[in-house]
# Entry
Amino acid sequence: MAAQLPAQAGALPDFVLRQFDPASGDPDHRQLYRILQSGIRTAVLPAGLKLPPSRAMAQALGIARNTVVHVYEQLALEGYVQAGVGRGTFVAAVGPRLAGFAGLAAQPLQPARRAALSSRGSQLVEQAGAAPLQWGAFAPGVPEVRMFPSQVWNRLQAQVWRAATPQQMSYATGHGDAGLREAIATYLQGTRGVVCTPEQVVVTSGTQQSLQLVAQLLADPGDTVWLEDPGYWGARSVFRALGLKLEPVAVDAEGLAPSAAQLRAPPRAMFVSPSHQYPTGALMSHGRRRQLLEYAAAQGAWVVEDDYDSEFRYGARPLPALQGLDDKGRVIYLGTFSKTLFPALRLAYLVLPPELVDSFARALNELFREGQTLQQAVLARFLAEGHYATHIRRMRAVYGARHDALIAAIAQQFGSQLPVIGGDAGLHLVLGLPQALDDRAVVQKVLRAGVATRPLSMYYMRSPAPAKGLLLGYGAVREEEIAGYFALLARAVQGFL
# Structure
């Protein structure tokens, strides 16, 4: 039981003595601080009240004087008390300081009823497409990270760290690591037919960041952007969040297929995946590519080319990039290492027309205060020494075998009952379903069976969705496990057929 404070110690309500319990197990300083802070904030200890001297408080509570001194100093630092040599310690006024606030505080006001999220924030969350499960059978768009050459990477990383400079350990500046930009340009020229110099490459922290830069620098709120429909939900989310008007454009066997009415109302930008349309796998024909580039040049529109996994084609060489055909400087090329190496690396890049490069680099540094410079240097060595090309060749064979195993499993379970769409490239295919089925309900039932997939309908902006199906990613499931996992999925699907 705490002792009574001496009369000359200064008034202090009994609640402090009643609440302080030396046997509670809570440290003395924390307990005393919490009691005094609460009393001041609730005005039980009113402004101007003189607190007992530290010695008297310590004696009354049976604690060390230094503990009380520490608590008083902390309260003074946070503005709860005011102390002066020879004057003592007084409770400070912690209410509103500004006259306007004080006036409002004196008025009886009804609590404002406002939504926690902004309208665009609510829309973003309600229409989000990111899946909670990003690994396993048959999560779409996920590579086989277990076969990444981590020993090689660790060796290169050790080399980079041994020679790390203060600049590499600070905020990034400019367009990204010079060695990485040179390695990317060399790789793209040799394998993707991209026409560029290292100076046109800007390194980013993923495709989503690249898209945000494109939207903020090349379009204003209210400007129209064409999106493939069905198409990549991530681009949809970024553009919508930045206030752009989204125009869904149908995709046919030759790629983006705008209607005559849409062609009469040119957009500010067009987002396309011509080498492997996401998610249908359609390839944009050479004729359609030429038409698209001519239209963009004539209308002053930008073409944003997402070349996300074109390295993986089975039975044919990868198609060259659309950017290589562009002689008017209208294409912005997006690439990423998430599908070819591992998603957590968070490194991607833009290849820009020369007149845009400096603006994009400056905006990147201004908005995002980039880093990852040491990782960029490691990746530069990984590419320059040929490890990247070796890994791509190896994984192309692995994914090709998994692709074939999944096609065989589909045939075994369904024969020709359900169509396979876009199954000759990338890390996923689409299993078509009858239009009358609710593919979202199918996905939920399949998930309960222990298998991840995604409904084709969620990739459409048009409603009702013109097609139904399941996206099946085979990148992250071993070849020998595919038949078993697909059998689980097939049993769940059969209940809807």
Remarks:
- DSSP finds 17 helices and 15 strands in the chain.
- Confidence is low (pLDDT under 50) at residues 5-11.
